[in-house]
Amino acid sequence: MHITDLSERATPGTRAVRSFEFTECEFRDDGPNGWVTFEGVASVVDTPYTVRDHLGEFTETIKAGAFDKTLAELSKRAAKGPSHDVALFVNHDTRALPLATVSAGNLTLSASPHLNVRAFMNPARPSVQEVRHAVSDGQARQMSIGFSVPNPKADQWNDDYTERNISEVKLYESSIVWRGASPTTSGAVRSLDELLAMFPEGSEYDENEVRRALAHLEALLPAQVEAVADAIIQRDREDRERLERKIALRPGWA
Q1: Which of 93, 96, 155, 173 is the most exposed place for a label (fewest CB within 10 A)?
Q2: Is 83 domain-assigned?
Q3: pLDDT tens across 164-190, in order?
Q4: Alpha-carbon distance 179 to 239, whole Å?
Q5: Which of 182, 243, 36, 3 is nearest to 123 (CA)?
Q6: How far is 71 from 222, CA to CA, in rounded Å?
Q7: Which domain does 34 fall in, by range?
Q8: Using one digit for the tens of pLDDT, what is the confidence trace for 201-225?
Q9: Sheet of strand 155-157: strand arrangement
Q10: 54 belongs to a structural domain
Q11: Is 119 among the domain residues?
């Protein structure tokens, strides 16, 4: 009989996604130069929530102050280039053009103590109008963050790895999302759930073994993959920016 080792959860530096229902969120027409202002709470602190991973479920809490260090480093990181910048996306689609970025000066993040987002968006962009209407229509109901815990001392688990307390995070991006698989589960887990649901009843495949196998394969991906992905994302952004400039100069194209 296979004995599940829940200590696998404590793998340092693993990227994660957490989603939270809107607590405070609004669009306003009071941004600079006629731009739209968006404000929302991207993550709550000192509030336990349930996370589902390939080993089952556990309770996680991001502690007050966990965002302080990463927020203090935002400007320095943004200066290193797009792969280090922090941006606001829709549905974590980091291949698309961001709605706002720290480097462009139209995205501000602060902790008081929850993680607050303020973004100024160009209303001439269709993506901005689309997400604004999606929020006002109730179709996009959550904010989400992509992060890791770089300091093992800031990643505290109880003895049976069913409770996790995080006192420091490294923030990669924030998103306005339609929904997570659960209030706090990443889209990757949701896709896996859909895959497992396709297995016929009485299948020889064990759900936990499948989850462990996929998690192991994911961990084997070489670090170079991330660098290649960043280069592709940057090239895609540049292509899209050139196209948007052409459309702005020739309205008839749209």
Answers
A1: 93
A2: yes
A3: 999 999 999 999 987 653 444 333 334
A4: 29
A5: 36
A6: 28
A7: 7-220
A8: 666 666 666 666 666 665 555 445 4
A9: 49-53, 56-62, 163-166, 155-157
A10: yes
A11: yes
